[in-house]
Amino acid sequence: MKGQQQQHQQEEFAPPLLRLLLVFPAINSQLLKLILSGFLLITLGVIGGGIITTSYLNSINPAVLIQLRYNILSTAPPSPSPAAPLNIPPPPTPTPTISSPSPPPPMLAPSPLPPPPTPAPTTTTTTTIPPPPMPHMQGGLMNNVMIEPSMGANMHDMTDEELLRKASSMLRGKGPERRVPPKVAFMFLVRGSLPFAPLWEKFFKGHKGLYSIYVHAQTLHPPPDHTSVFHGTTIPSKAVQWGSMSMMEAERRLLANALLDSSNQRFVLLSEACIPLYNLPSVYSYLMNSTQSFVGMYDIPGPTGRGRYNKRMRPQIEPRQWRKGSQWFEMDRALAAEVVSDGVYFPVFQRHCRPPCYGDEHYLPTFVNARSVGGRNANRSLTWVDWSKGGAHPARFVRQQVNPGMLAWMRNGGTVIGARTTGGTPQCATCSPGSSCPILSTASSCMLLKS
């Protein structure tokens, strides 16, 4: 009896939960298992998540981590996303780190920025590279810009078609501005030798950078010495036959090679029999201050003029456009460009100009007239030629005729009875190579040293 009363008292003073467990033993075991298993799962999840998060953060490159945090901070303030793991120990570590990205941005910004400033100075130095042409120009001939000077300034392996196309492509625009003076291109069409080379050497001496030299000759005898101004000036040449269009093909070849140098602005055609009547500064000033080209073109009746026209040249060339003139010309860059680019009139001459039609006397005068560039042309040649003797070739001066008086007479625009003259001041004259000795001494003392 006493034992039952004590048990009853213990049950009365037992906690409600224990009392519930004692009353429902089956429920007690199941609920206890659920509570314990849930607690264990939560604990394991928290510990595992912390370990994984810590190892992941440690595996990331610090620079990338800083950049990622900086991007997250600057693009959006997603405080909600880190809010979930606030109760987990690892997140507190990133949280202070996130608040400190303000210093990293300044460090990241300079790192990409310095590279651009570094190229900038490099570009500046590159833009100042144009001066190098100056020493090159003053140290020798500029000539063909695509060839190294040591290889021979005017040598290349282009065909005539490639050469003309290349020259034409360079002429459409003004090209890059260069701090070099414009030059006169002296183009020598010779048959094999330069008997007046010593005279021309004196003519060019001391004026490097104001001229370029181009020589068309299959073989130049004797070959110029390496100290000569003619060294390395021979262009790729072909055989030239007098009276055929090969003469004009050679002239266009000379023009095209000279046009490859953008600093050449005036172009003079010369032969091995030409001598200068003035010094180079005078010739240079005369040409550079002129606004015209110098191509003689005349409408001459009779068999030696209009009689040479071929009716098969129609319709490209009409009889009213037919002209005749001296082979020796001087032209500006614009006209030289048109001559080299001509794909209309030149092919007609190649097909239909045969003796007594001579391309070197008719092509350029007819082309200039047909292209209506007369306003840009002085309609005369700067080369003094004596046609008073008649015939197919001009008169030549022999040794006995060469004296200071004759040269002064040529300089003053002297005329010969029966010769066609148009006034103006001749710059060159044609003389017989046999008179070279007196010309060298006379010209040097009378005209080359004076303007």
Automatic annotation (TrEMBL):
Membrane-spanning ranges: 34-57
Record region (Disordered): 79-133
Topology within the bilayer: Single-pass type II membrane protein
InterPro entries noted in UniProt: BC10-like, Glyco_trans_14
Location relative to the cell: Membrane
Name of the protein in its database record: Core-2/I-branching beta-1,6-N-acetylglucosaminyltransferase family protein
GO MF term list: glycosyltransferase activity
Keywords: Glycoprotein, Glycosyltransferase, Membrane, Transferase, Transmembrane, Transmembrane helix
Domain of life of the source: Eukaryota
Bias kind Pro residues: ranges: 79-120
One Gene Ontology CC term in the entry: membrane
Pfam families: Branch
